[in-house]
Amino acid sequence: MPTDATGVVRDAGFFIGMVNDLEPGGDVEAEPRRLGRGLFCFGQDLFGTQFAVRSGAQVVLFDPETAQVEALGASLQDWASWLLEDPDVRGAAGFARAFQDAEGPLQPDQRLVPLQPFVGGGDYGFENLSVKDAAVAMRIRGPVAQQLRDLPVGSTIRLRP
Within a domain: residue 101? Predict the structure, then answer.
C-alpha cells in the first residue's frame, strides 16, 4: 500500500492509522489527534467522517466537526452491515455521484468540506461545499471540534481562525 511522507498508509481514499500515533506536522493536526485518542481509523466518507476501531473492540463513527463518537458495532462485519443498510445516506454514494456529475470527478484523497460547518447550520448544497485534500480537511475541522468540545447544546459560538 502506498504511504505518504509521514509513513501514513493511503489507498483509494482511505486513511489508515492510529489517530494518537501520528506525529505533529503529519497528516492530522494535534486537535483531532487528541480528541480521537485511541481510535484506529480505517476509512472515511465523502465528507471526512472517520470510520474507526476503538480499543480494538468496537467499530465507531468519529465526527470531524464535533469529535463525537457513535458506536456502530463490535466488528467490521457489523460496520459493513450498517453501511450497506443505506449506502446512499451512510456512505454518501448517491450524493457523491450527483456531486461528481455536476462538478467533475473527485480524486480518491479528496473530501467535501462545508464552508459553513454542518454543526453550525451549514447545508449539503453544492454551493456550501469545497473540495479539499482529506488531510487538509482534517486540519480545517480539528480546530472547530476543539472549540466545540464540551459546549452545552444551544451555545453561541464564534470560530477562531
Answer: yes
